Amino acid sequence: MKDIMIKIRNVLALPFFLFSLFFILQGCKQEETAPEILQAVKYEVLSKKGNIRSRSLSGVVKSADESDLSFRVGGLLQEITVKEGQFVKKGTVLALLDPQDYKLNVDEKRAEVSSASATLTERKENLKRKKILLKDGFSTQAIVQESESAYQNALQNVDIAETRLEDAETQLERTELKAPFSGTVAKRLSVIFKEVEPGQKIFRFQSEGGLEVQVMVPETLIGEVDKKERVSATFPTLKGVAVFGEVSEIGAVAEEGNAYKVILTLHNTEALDIRSGMTANIKFTLDDNVEKQVFVIPMSAIDLRYFDKKLGKLNKQATVYVFDKNTSTLKIKRVETREIIGNKVEVLSGLEDGDILITAGVSFLNEGQKVTLWKPQYSLPATLDK
């Protein structure tokens, strides 16, 4: 009886065992067929329209017509009649030299003119008498010619004396330093009661209105800057102020740091408080031709496993990854780089319009790896049912 009961219990347990085994096997089958989890990668789609290159450089504002003013004669600086920052009209007297010596010189030259004129009058009368005597037979032709020569010398001496007087009067006028055009006294460069030489700088003077910016452009960019090129300018000290301008001069010789001096003329600055000496940030738009499209990509897109440690810089043939939409895998592309600008790098070749460029985590990726494109998940704020 006991054996019969054991057999019955075994027979009853068998279905439960088989049923459990079925679910275990089903579970294993589900694990085997579970979908592969692919790594999500950040990316950007390259576009020619979206890769307009620009570069900002700092420069210094200066007057478009700035001059260092000086006396053309020397002497004691007797008076300065204007202050720094003062606006003056053309012809305004800015400073005076002591005129005393120059006045004395004018008086001397006037006396010389008077003396020469008196001599001329005397010799003119003498020549007139000699001609009358020659006509009446009381003189000779040689005597008349001698009187004629004396008269011509006297006439020449008057001309010389008058020229010297004009020079002396001009020198006296030059003891007054006048504004050559309407503008602002930017800086005083001398003090009163000091002897100054001809040509010694007394003022820095700026014209009314026109302003320029001087920028030093690196040799890597100077070939892309053209005359009449349109630029924009902003000013760190003037929030919200932006003006346009154009390239007016491009230096032909490299200066310090292998950079070239470029002068930019600013437009419509009259109503703005832009002053000489201010810092200006100039934005250049660098247009490459269609045959050589330049893409600007994040540095994070470059695989630094190909970084040239010996040179301490990127190889010219750097490595990036692009996404193949047909296979959902990564492909390596070798690209030619040019200049690093902040956290971005210029790529001259190797990329095409429409390429899906991987922009993050590239040091952990491999060619042929299957990935999925990362899409941000946005959480919408909860709303209460009314």
What report would you give on this structure?
By secondary structure, the chain is α+β, with helices and mostly antiparallel strands. Among the domains are: 91 residues, Beta Barrel (conserved putative lor/sdh protein from methanococcus maripaludis s2 fold), CATH 2.40.420.20; 94 residues, Efflux pump adaptor protein, beta barrel domain (Elongation Factor Tu (Ef-tu), domain 3, Beta Barrel), CATH 2.40.30.170; 76 residues, Helix Hairpins, CATH 1.10.287. Helix content is 27%, strand content 35%. The protein contains four helices and 24 strands. Helix 2 packs antiparallel against helix 3. The radius of gyration is 46 Å and the shape is elongated.
Quickly list its features.
Helix Hairpins; 4 helices; disordered C terminus; 386 residues; 6-stranded antiparallel beta barrel; Elongation Factor Tu (Ef-tu), domain 3; conserved putative lor/sdh protein from methanococcus maripaludis s2 fold; alpha+beta; 27% helix; 35% strand
For the CA atoms, what is the radius of gyration?
Answer: 46 Å
What is the spatial order of strands in the main beta sheet?
3-12-15-14-13-16
Helices and strands, in N-to-C order?
HEEEEEEEHHEEEEEHEEEEEEEEEEEE
SS content category: alpha+beta
End-to-end Cα distance = 73 Å
So, CATH architecture of the domain at 54-64 and 208-290?
Beta Barrel
**Secondary structure tally: strands:** 24
- Output the number of helix runs: 4
Q: Helicity, in percent?
A: 25-40%
Give the C-level CATH assignment of the domain at 54-64 and 208-290. Mainly Beta
Largest sheet: 6 strands, antiparallel, barrel
CATH topology heading of the domain at 54-64 and 208-290: Elongation Factor Tu (Ef-tu), domain 3
Per CATH, the superfamily of the domain at 54-64 and 208-290 is Efflux pump adaptor protein, beta barrel domain
Note the overall shape: elongated
Q: What's the overall average pLDDT, rounded?
A: 83
Spans of at least 5 consecutive residues with low confidence: 382-386
Residue share in β-strands: 35-45%
